[in-house]
Amino acid sequence: MSExxxxxxxxxxxxxxxxxxxxxxxxxDWYCKLLGVAPDGDILFGHLYALPMDGTSLVLDQMPMWGGxxxxxxxxxxxxxxxxxxxxxxxxxxxxxxxxxELVTEIQNEQWFAFRxxxxxxxxxxx
Length: 127
Hints:
Radius of gyration: 17 Å
Organism: Paenibacillus phytorum
Domain Glyoxalase/fosfomycin resistance/dioxygenase: 14-124
InterPro entries: Glyas_Bleomycin-R_OHBP_Dase, Glyas_Fos-R_dOase_dom
Strand order of the largest sheet: 4-7-6-5
Pfam families: Glyoxalase
CATH architecture of the largest domain: 2-Layer Sandwich
Number of helices: 2
CATH topology of the largest domain: Signal recognition particle alu RNA binding heterodimer, srp9/1
Protein name: VOC family protein
């Protein structure tokens, strides 16, 4: 059976993933420490920060249009929307423990674990 390709102006590539945060400066510092990168670049428009990443970009966003101006901030991820990659799941888990990150699961199937960022977003690290 041959594959049918439809014409679309939208590329089959993800360029950015947005993470809702309540305080852009605190989130920038926390994620940079988590990923072992130095803060690079400015906070844009008072609410956006693009983390220095390899591959798909990760953008922290206070999301003023999507609830960021509300007292509780924007809604958080309650299901992981993406995963951070690691070559050493045990070392990654220990790193999180040593940095007092809220761990939601232990290492599962020797492949992954879930954790929460300071804003309550549920995230994942996978081997």
